[in-house]
Amino acid sequence: EPFVADEYIERLAWRTPGGGSRGGEAFDPKRLLEEFVNHIQELQVMDERIQRKVEKLEQQCQKEAKEFAKKVQELQKSNQVAFQHFQELDEHISYVATKVCHLGDQLEGVNTPRQRAVEAQKLMKYFNEFLDGELKSDVFTNSEKIKEAADIIQKLHLIAQELPFDRFSEVKSKIASKYHDLECQLIQEFTSAQRRGEISRMREVAAVLLHFKGYSHCVDVYIKQCQEGAFLRNDVFEDAAILCQRVNKQVGEVFSNPETIQNIFEVKLQSYVKDQLEEHRKSDAEQYLKNLYDLYTRTTNLSSKLMEFNLGTDKQTFLSKLIKSIFISYLENYIEVEIGYLKSRSAMILQRYYDSKNHQKRSIGTGGIQDLKERIRQRTNLPLGPSIDTHGETFLSQEVVVNLLQETKQAFERCHRLSDPSDLPKNAFRIFSMLVEFLCTEHIDYALETGLAGIPSSDSKNANLYFLDVVHQANTIFHLFDKQFNDHLMPLISSSPKLSECLQKKKDIIEQMEVKLDMGIDTLNCMIGQMKHILAAEQKKTDFKPEDENNVLIQYTNACVKVCGYVRKQVEKIRNSMDGKNVDTVLMELGVRFHRLIYEHLQQYSYSCMGGMLAICDVAEYRKCAKDFKIALVLQLFDTLHALCNLLVVAPDNLKQVCSGEQLANLDKNILHSFVQLRVDYRSARLARHFS
């Protein structure tokens, strides 16, 4: 423990009699001082003794340090000597090794020619036997030495090919005959070993046959026996996968290049694919494309399973080549078949729909006389003949759209699977162009054109406005079209230059349809025309100048009730037919025209005091109807009109005050004057004086 002087003094004082207050014992400072002095002397003696011991140990330590340093120096010298000896030994070993290598090279240089000479001598001996026509060597007569015989005959066969035919034709034919016999024997031996399940013997025979021309025949024999009883079910792909999985390990053990053995399924699949596709290639494009997509998908799935097997270093390239060899003749013209089928199928879907409606498609909007007449009639209301009656038919069908989109979706899926990666964006764009042609142009655009041609003139009575139904359905269909564009086309072209081309084509389609919808604003003229008919038929002059001023029982006129009911229906129809900013744009235009109609309508009558009150009630009801538009400008216009109607009933003395009010202060004085003139009492000198 660390030494603490204060605690040490305390313990010393506590042990000394009279040094503390223990047991009531009196404190004795002299006794304590004497104890301290004695203790100090003892400590001094102890310090001297310890100091001498320390000096002795220091001297001993210095002596041992000198001895250790001397010993270390001696060891360093010994180490240097040993290192020098090691270097000398290493140099000697290197010298000896060099000599040994040189000697080995010399021995090899002598032995290799000697071995070749011995080998050549043996081959010459065997060649002489063929030359003499009698095979005496044990290697040719002993069936157990077929491996050695195969090695010899293979070498003799190579040598014989270099000999001139005119002098050695007979011996060459004998060697070739023996070569063929041994080859057949080896293949037979391989077949027998396979049937017996002797893998080691199969591997041994296959290694010998590797240098023979008949090695591929050996592989074919192996494949044929493996396939016996393998393809018994209808699913050839599953059977091929099971077969490859079963023989994969054995192939690796028997053959040195397992890649060559994969035609276990290649030949079988190629014939199966050909049978399935050629049957429908020219007669049924739909079934042909479905079969092609299905077969290609199942083949690629099978190749994915084969990736687990030992197929050499570059499995992916090998399997890709394998698949390409099977389908190349079908994939080369795939997109042409796809486009041809899609075009005929889409045309059939549309034609079947129009036939079900007993409708003969006609050329609309081509710039002909009929089209010109229609445009003039819509824009000027000139009586150039009746509009085209569509009998309430929009000529748009959700079923047709779903069928077209489904066909295109399947085409996109096939395109993704069957197209070469470099051709994928281009092929996808061609399919998209087909969808645009038949869905957008031949169906939606045709329906819009027909709807435009069917818009009645503004002076038609009881006209049915079916164009809004066309707009509603076209809007819904285009949302489906846009969804397919994003879900199925975009992934195929997102990283290619075709993306901008597709987006531009889609933008052009949208702009083209918006032009047609803008032209459909003539529907608003029809709505206003219907309101005019209602007002003309229902509004009476006596409504605002009743004979009995004190006996008016109605809150607003019958014309007002019918007009408001009609307007509310049209507003609801517009909201259901359109979306986004289009709703507000169309409702604003309708609201402004509705206000102008009511304003001009009110200008046609004279108003008594009670008639003016009834006009105010009518305008208040029109204003409630205007709130349904949810357009601030329209509501403001009707608020101002309501304020103007107050001029019809206000007392002459208050006219100037009302005209300077918040809502009327900014209006032109002529407008205010025109409303005051509608009062039956306007000609009275008092009213004219007050207003002037």
UniProtKB/TrEMBL annotation:
Protein name (Swiss-Prot/TrEMBL): Exocyst complex component 5
Keywords: Coiled coil, Exocytosis, Transport
Keyword flag Iron: no
Ranges where the Exocyst complex component Sec10-like alpha-helical bundle domain occurs: 148-691
Residue span, Exocyst complex component Sec10 N-terminal domain: 29-137
Source species: Phaetusa simplex (large-billed tern)
Pfam families given in the database record: Sec10_HB (PF07393), Sec10_N (PF20667)
Gene Ontology CC: exocyst
Transport listed as a keyword: yes
Coiled coil location: 40-78
Gene Ontology BP terms: exocytosis; Golgi to plasma membrane transport
Family the UniProt entry places it in: Belongs to the SEC10 family.
